[in-house]
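Case study B.
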Amino acid sequence: MATPSISHRLAEAAVALFDENGYDETTVDDIAARAGVSRSTFFRYYRSKEDAVFPDHDTLLATVDARLRASTADTAIVAVTDAVRIVLAHYVEDAEVSLRRYRLVGRVPALRAREIASVARYQRLFREFIGEWLAGSPDADLRAELMAASVVAAHNQVLRGWLRAGGTHDPFPPLDHALGYVIATFRHLERPQDGKDQVVVATFSRSASPQAVMEAIQDHLGSRP
Amino acid sequence: MATPSISHRLAEAAVALFDENGYDETTVDDIAARAGVSRSTFFRYYRSKEDAVFPDHDTLLATVDARLRASTADTAIVAVTDAVRIVLAHYVEDAEVSLRRYRLVGRVPALRAREIASVARYQRLFREFIGEWLAGSPDADLRAELMAASVVAAHNQVLRGWLRAGGTHDPFPPLDHALGYVIATFRHLERPQDGKDQVVVATFSRSASPQAVMEAIQDHLGSRP
DNA sequence: CACCGTGATGACACTGAGTATTGTCAATAC
DNA sequence: GTATTGACAATACTCAGTGTCATCACGGTG
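Model:
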């Protein structure tokens, strides 16, 4: 259409003004004026000034939630990696906007706080999903918490690297690497299929003393009480 | 002294009023009036309404920072666990206040956001410290990010459990368990001392097929590229 | 064509957080 | 005794966010 949606015009006006004049210096009136609507209309589309910077977070969160829920215990790991890829893909799709927002968020504490809060919402989602997946196994809550935190941290690390590099390279190989790392690290979280068919690998240095071997074994056993 | 510090009176008045009348329903004027000072005095002691709920976060953060900086690469793990214990100890010291705040934060989204932001600051601190510690090793940034996230997640999991239980039990054994778990999980993050003297443990199910063993080994190797 | 319901928008008023400025008073220094 | 400093109060201001009501465009209906 000739005139893009009001919602989109508002978001664009907001980011442009924040960029030009600074966040605190820009009033909602300014944004509404630039978008050619009234102040009240702004608040009809966005609950707050910050909201205009993160227009589609709720949608994305719902998408991730849906992807996680559309899986069984057998496909949990795939669901998690898929969900993370969805999020990253969302940033990559609109690299222009993502980069501008990244620079903006870096300069405005209020926006940084907002972003951190939304990251926490993803982490909570993953935690709940993984918690259900692991339910019944020992330390399920703890493990779910740790794995959710790691998954989200891995995503953020890759995303930040991509943003800092100016959104130039393809971030999915790094993401796969990072997620592979997380999954390998947490592989022993998976519930043993039938309790007897586990495969575990151990190697010993030929020069290792029996004491050193014992300590390694104790550490290993100590982590699964 | 007969009259406690104004700062303390303000914080107490704030939490009391938030408890009685709700957060949004309480104005800064109310808080100041209850503390027997003027509105402007409130803002002299706290930058915002939320600040009054988390009076000593900055101090605690500085303490943690100091503890981390007062360590070398050799003692990094001890420093991390110590730092986490400092934080938990701070909550336990004043269980009364911690519990009241926990209930309050659970009900007020604005406070929850604030708390999440301060958790992020701890995580950042740990990430930087661990990053320096691992500097030079492959994937140092990624590993630092993951371990910091896990350490913080472990702490929060234990803290939440303690708070939900009403602050009754001693949370340090659970913390040790959780941290032990994290450290065991990330043990292979430690840089090998001299590259040849590692001790690694591997066990195989007697019924495992050679293929299963090979897969396990490949997974193991895949996590250290 | 006149009428009517509906949904989007604007105009406006109000509350309250946070800031900045200025004034006042008391303690301490000199 | 006077000057300086610092803690607090008083006041006015900006602006985010909420709520209410009027207006206008519109599509359908009689």
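The longest strand of chain A covers residues 199-202. The remaining cases will be described in the next quarterly update.
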